From TrEMBL, chain A:
The keyword Cell wall biogenesis/degradation applies. Pathway: Cell wall biogenesis; lipoteichoic acid biosynthesis. This is D-alanyl carrier protein. GO terms for biological process: cell wall organization; lipoteichoic acid biosynthetic process. Carrier protein involved in the D-alanylation of lipoteichoic acid (LTA). The loading of thioester-linked D-alanine onto DltC is catalyzed by D-alanine--D-alanyl carrier protein ligase DltA. The DltC-carried D-alanyl group is further transferred to cell membrane phosphatidylglycerol (PG) by forming an ester bond, probably catalyzed by DltD. D-alanylation of LTA plays an important role in modulating the properties of the cell wall in Gram-positive bacteria, influencing the net charge of the cell wall. It is found in: Cytoplasm. 4'-phosphopantetheine is transferred from CoA to a specific serine of apo-DCP.
UniProtKB/TrEMBL annotation, chain B:
InterPro entries: AA_adenyl_dom (IPR010071), AMP-bd_C_sf (IPR045851), AMP-binding_CS (IPR020845), AMP-dep_synth/lig_dom (IPR000873), ANL_N_sf (IPR042099), DltA (IPR010072), DltA-like (IPR044507). Residues 9-355 form the AMP-dependent synthetase/ligase domain. Pfam families: AMP-binding (PF00501). One of its GO terms (cellular component) is cytoplasm. Its EC number is 6.2.1.54. Belongs to the ATP-dependent AMP-binding enzyme family. DltA subfamily. This is D-alanine--D-alanyl carrier protein ligase. It is an enzyme of class 6 (ligase). PANTHER family: ENZYME, PUTATIVE (JCVI)-RELATED, PTHR45398. It comes from Paucilactobacillus oligofermentans DSM 15707 = LMG 22743. ATP binds at residues 152-153, 292-297, 378, 390-393, 497. It comes from the Bacteria. Its main location: cytoplasm.
Length: 77, 508
């Protein structure tokens, strides 16, 4: 699986929602991803990609859609 | 000795000791004594009915403690209500508990008929009055009198007010002070809002040991950046939180024993502590003592405990909730057709007298003979040596991130909304069986204004957003489901009810 598929898979696992047709949809809007789900999301990303998310500089804006997460993951790899 | 008197005595002897540290802003035991006496004197002037409860409304500031102490010093139980509560809920609590006074520590509340209010600006002025209040042994809350009332989720949308007496609380704090290796004058994390009884686990043991509460207010914990900034500045020795909250803290790699050598005790309650989280914590803090505890609000915070050692981690995949505290008798009420799983029943001095002004609900789950008995609705198993394992719920109550939620209450509020024709909420669990979120299956009302925004096969996030905004006017935010799924019709059982079990299977 490529980065796209893995990210979509993780998002689907956490939210039960398929974002493949709405890669720019705001995952935080409507509280679908709340703070606890954000914790899960970051843990999964660290786990699956072996990246280290600089958590003390975490900014929701940079992680708010499938596309943004993919960009972030690629920049951290 | 009476708990209030004990705290007051420590304050008299150690007025300069720090009791509260709110992001660097500190207050002393002397201030707690002086301010609460001044407020107590004012309460006495109001001529309230003896023992009528007082609502204390606010956030997590030092003044909350002042208001709690002033209430119990004058013989009144306090009802902590979080400032994030919707107005509807405050009105409901007032209708049920029939208080005569509300102390508004922080924020603005709706005007309610026949309710006296000490507003926050007035409160600030009273604090500094030199009071003639004389500590009166005969007036403070004592024995079986109610000390605090915590409101919890009720199935019909009416919350239930659990009344905890002075002696209930004393049974709890005696245990806290004897069984967890706490030292004199500890520095303890205070992260939980006061409307949630886990806060009692940090508040009263700390006050009775002359310690310092270091506060991590909700505003700081909602944003990762400020959360980790605050975490790095904490110097607590004792950590009290839900397992969910420590999971968040563990995201930061600097949260470890090298950076926080003073942090040697962790105490968890409010939801299941998973093996994952406990072992990760043990890796980060190999020398710390990690305690898992369990208990319903009705039995005063917690009644079982166990230290999670490496050998316990090696022995159990699902961690045990521990052994009953010494003064409490607990047993498993087995159903005839069941192997060894049954309802956990509790009897002892920390069992509540029941729900305020709600004899029907009280009778359903409590028995008050020589000692009080409470049927928890929790399922468990008992090992030969008395160790208790948790096995879920017998009804539709869930624990999520430490919050206790009746799914029927969630459904009640969903169905009240004019945009919704029918709806039902189901829990979503992770691989450990822990509830991680709520999912609402919604059949929209075809004539509602929100229905126009509905997109077939779309994510409908904007629609959900608007719906949640509406719901937040009446429901506590933690009860609002994270995910909404829109269906043309909900599946129905043979006898015409929504088929929750079918939907729960789908949610998995």
């Amino acid at each position: 699986m490529n980065v796209n598929e893995i990210v979509l898979d993780i998002l689907n696992g956490i939210t039960g929602t398929d974002f493949s047709k709405d890669m720019d949809a705001d995952i935080f809007m409507s509280g679908l991803v709340d703070s606890m789900a954000t914790v899960e999301l970051l843990l999964e990303l660290q786990d699956k990609f072996g990246i280290d998310v600089p958590i003390s500089e975490f900014n929701r804006e940079d992680w708010k859609s499938a596309n943004k997460i993919i960009q972030k993951v690629e920049s951290l790899q | 000795m009476n708990l209030i008197k004990q705290i007051d005595q420590f304050a008299t002897e150690n007025p300069a000791a720090i009791v509260y540290n709110y992001l660097g802003e500190t207050n002393t035991y002397g201030e707690l004594q002086q301010y609460s006496n001044a407020l107590a004197a004012r309460i006495q002037q109001l001529d309230l009915q003896p023992e009528s409860p007082i609502i204390v409304y606010g956030g997590q500031t030092f003044e909350m403690l002042v208001a709690f102490m002033a209430s119990v010093k004058t013989g009144h139980a306090y009802i902590p209500v979080d400032k994030h509560s919707p107005n509807e809920r405050i009105k409901l609590i007032t209708e049920i508990a029939q208080p005569e006074l509300m102390i508004e520590v922080d924020g603005n509340t709706p005007a309610i008929e026949n309710l006296k209010v000490i507003h926050s600006d007035e409160f600030q002025a009273i604090k500094h009055e030199t009071s003639s209040f004389e500590f009166d042994d005969n007036q403070m809350v004592t024995g079986d009198q109610t000390f605090y009332i915590i409101f919890t989720s009720g199935t019909t949308g009416n919350p239930k007010g659990v009344q905890i007496s002075h002696d209930n609380l004393k049974s709890f704090t005696d245990w806290m002070l004897s069984d967890f290796g706490l030292q004199a004058q500890p520095k303890v994390l205070a992260q939980t809002p006061y409307s949630f009884d886990l806060s009692v686990m940090d508040l009263y043991p700390t006050l009775l040991l002359g310690g310092e509460l270091q506060v991590l207010p909700r505003e700081q914990t909602e944003d990762f950046k400020s959360l980790f900034q605050c975490l790095s500045e904490l110097t607590v020795e004792v950590w009290v939180s839900t397992p969910s909250f420590i999971e968040m803290a563990l995201l930061d790699r600097n949260f470890n024993q090298q950076v926080h050598p003073e942090l040697t005790t962790f105490m968890f309650c409010g939801e299941e502590l998973t093996h994952d989280v406990a072992s990760k914590l043990h890796e980060r803090f190999p020398d710390a003592h990690i305690f898992n505890t369990y208990g319903p609000t009705e039995a005063t915070v917690a009644v079982t405990s166990i230290e999670i050692t490496p050998s316990i981690l090696a022995m159990y995949d699902r961690l045990p909730i521990g052994y009953f505290k010494n003064d409490t008798l607990g047993w498993i009420e087995l159903a005839s057709d069941n192997d060894n799983t049954g309802e956990i029943v509790l009897s002892g001095p920390s069992i509540s007298k029941g729900y305020i002004n709600n004899p029907a609900k009280t009778e359903q789950v409590f028995k008050h003979d020589q000692t009080a008995t409470y049927h928890t609705g929790d399922l468990g198993q008992r090992k030969n040596d008395g160790l208790i394992l948790y096995a879920g719920r017998k009804d539709f109550q869930i624990k999520m991130h430490g919050y206790r939620i009746e799914l029927e209450e969630v459904n009640h509020y969903l169905n009240l909304n004019e945009n919704i024709s029918r709806a039902v909420a189901v829990p979503v669990t992770d691989k450990n069986g822990k509830v991680v979120s709520l999912l609402a299956y919604v059949q929209l009302d075809l004539t509602s204004y929100l229905y126009h925004d509905f997109e077939v096969d779309g994510l409908n996030l904007k629609l959900t957003d608007e719906l949640k905004f509406e719901l937040a006017k009446k429901m506590m935010s933690y009860m609002i489901p994270q995910k909404f799924v829109y269906l043309d019709t909900l599946p129905i059982t043979m006898n015409g009810k929504i088929d929750i079990k079918a939907l729960m299977r789908e949610a998995k």
